[in-house]
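G., the chain you wanted modeled:
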Amino acid sequence: MGEILQATRQLQYVAFFYVKVRLRDGFVFMFMAVDAYSGYAINLGIEQDDSDANILKNVYLLTEHKEFIKHMANGFTLVFDGNEQLAGRIESIIKLVNGKVIFNKTYNNYIANDVMLSILEYINKAKG
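Predicted structure as tokens:
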């Protein structure tokens, strides 16, 4: 069995994920990050697709986010639930700002769970 990850400070572990949202004439992808320690969520942006280029773009945008910058001096680890093929490219973006990446679907889902439930609750209320 693998090591149990537990955040003991801000940005120690940050779930990076995206949500596919249905619109009237198609879909968009909402990119987000959630800090495991504080539960703070960052909406990075909306994209037309979940291409490798858009994933990498939003990783970069995270490193430029004003709230993220405040706490990244001690390093951070992005937790992805997939996209292992991008490991080297993600690392090349985040190593410059003291970041690492791991791929752990279970932990990513655990960190992102409250935010995901809130999004679903909002969508269900909006449907009536």
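The chain has one domain: 13-127.

Shout if anything looks off.
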